[in-house]
């Protein structure tokens, strides 16, 4: 069956496309369905709410099964900031670089134990009949002292995991990131749920 990937973030689209490439879905981008310029107001209070808002909006406009991703970074000592505000942490038109600089500034002088963080990815799926579900994936790590690497996107240059000691997520290949990432885990879970539902 056909599924629209409801994201305006091309990095997400690429990662999701790669993770779903061996799965029995024909994926379409927002551009493919003529919604390349659609702005969706994400006024939910949780990743789950925002992912559902995006997926429902696009399913209603297209009639296709729709998959949306709401994700972000939660830093323990910052009371889980930037959380659902990760994309616009440093302001409305903030670039990834601006956001990384703001985060480094807020953690200035803090030792490793106070730099613990996790990435969260919630995937929402809305079916043409309106039925929906969400799944969640998380990846724990620490915020480094300097940005490193030019792969990935968002906070990847600052995010260090145990799996790849000493390297940021922006220094490992996209395939290696997908194997361990919050997005990879959430989409693996989504595949399981969808396989069961499409079978019955
Ligand atoms: P859509 O809503 O159109 O999907 P968006 O970028 O606005 O795109 P979000 O509101 O979910 O999406 O914000 C996600 C932000 O969290 C993203 O812009 C990054 O700053 C950060 N983020 C999410 N996943 C990430 C990852 O795998 N690596 C690095 N940063 C990530």
Itemize the secondary structure elements and their pairings.
Blueprint (H helix, E strand, L loop, with lengths): L1 E4 L4 H10 L6 E3 L18 H16 L2 E11 L5 E2 L13 H11 L9 E11 L5 E12 L15 E2 L13 H7 L1 H18 L1
Parallel strand pairs: 1-2, 1-3
Antiparallel strand pairs: 3-4, 3-5, 5-6, 6-7
Helix pairs in contact: 4-5
Bound molecules: inosine 5'-triphosphate (ITT).
In words, what does this structure look like?
Helices cover 31% and strands 22% of the residues. It is α/β, with parallel strands linked by helices. The chain has a single domain, classed as Maf protein, CATH 3.90.950. Strands 1, 2, 3, 4, 5, 6 and 7 form a seven-stranded mixed beta sheet that branches. A hairpin with a 5-residue loop joins strand 3 and strand 4. The protein is globular, with a radius of gyration of 17 Å. It starts with a strand and ends with a helix. The mean pLDDT is 97. Inosine 5'-triphosphate is lined by residues 7-9, 12, 69-73, 86-87, 99, 119, 152-156, 181, 183.
Bound molecules: inosine 5'-triphosphate
- CATH fold-level topology: Maf protein
Number of H/I helices: 5
Largest β-sheet summary: 7 strands, mixed
Can you tag this structure with a few keywords?
200 residues; alpha/beta; Maf protein; seven-stranded mixed beta sheet; binds inosine 5'-triphosphate
Brief overview:
The chain is of the alpha/beta class. Helix content is 31%, strand content 22%.
């Amino acid at each position: 069956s056909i599924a629209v990937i409801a994201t305006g973030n091309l990095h997400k689209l690429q990662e999701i496309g790669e993770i779903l490439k061996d799965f029995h879905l024909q994926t379409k981008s927002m551009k493919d369905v003529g919604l390349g310029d659609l702005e969706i107001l994400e006024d939910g209070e949780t990743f789950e709410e925002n992912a559902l808002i995006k997926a429902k909006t696009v399913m209603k406009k297209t009639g296709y099964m729709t998959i949306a991703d709401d994700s972000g970074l939660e830093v323990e000592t910052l009371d889980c900031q930037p959380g659902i505000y990760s994309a616009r942490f440093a302001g409305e038109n903030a670039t990834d670089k601006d956001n990384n600089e703001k985060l480094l500034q807020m953690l200035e002088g803090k030792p490793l134990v106070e730099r613990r963080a996790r990435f969260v990815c919630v995937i929402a799926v809305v079916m043409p009949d309106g039925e929906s579900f969400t799944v969640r994936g998380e990846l724990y790590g620490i915020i480094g002292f300097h940005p490193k690497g030019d792969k990935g996107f968002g906070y990847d240059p600052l995010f260090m995991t145990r799996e790849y000691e000493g390297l940021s997520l922006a220094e490992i290949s996209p395939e290696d990131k997908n194997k361990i990432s919050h997005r990879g885990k959430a989409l693996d879970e989504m595949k399981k749920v969808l396989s069961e539902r499409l079978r019955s």
